[in-house]
Design goal:
Blueprint lengths: L2 H31 L28 H6 L7 H7 L7 H5 L2 H107 L1
Helix pairs in contact: 1-5
Length: 203
Amino acid sequence: MSISGNHSANVSRAQAKLAIEMKKSLLKSWMDTGVPWVATTDGEQVRDSSGELKLDYFPTCIAEFCRWNGTQNCESVRLTLGSITITNRSTLDTHSGLKSEIDALCKALVKRAARQLGETNKNTQIEELKEKVIFLNSIIARQETEITQLQIGEDSLKGKLSRSERALSNSAKHYDDAIAELKKQVAELTASLRKVVPLKIES
């Protein structure tokens, strides 16, 4: 191979390694700042059908790292990636140290992503629980109002019952007094009648 050919090959290898390093540096930055969330071009985060935020694409193994060229990412993230390209697997194999670093990074990112989702899901659950607490408090307040109204009604019924009982007691006493009076009158009439009847017999 000519000198120029060797030079070109060396330049190509250097460029290939630089491209790998660029992709690796992106993964390292995501380890620090977190895997990007899927977002619109306006920066608004996208949620799935369950209302949860969605993590954007990231390579989880060496094979995915080699295929990763940014087209797998959403547009808002793609704009931050720069010019990353597909990596030739055989080229990466020639840099065993670099390959090991990338493999470790991919595995670490999987854990980082799981932690992100867990924290986000927890926040979502907290918000849902807060909404449930507000809803339950509204039910409790409504039930307390209904209980108060029932207690007022019960007190009113107790008052009416007490008045009815007093009225019944008074009526019973009045009845007893009237019966006693009638018995007294009957006794008096009976006594008078006994006095009159003998006179009629004598005459």
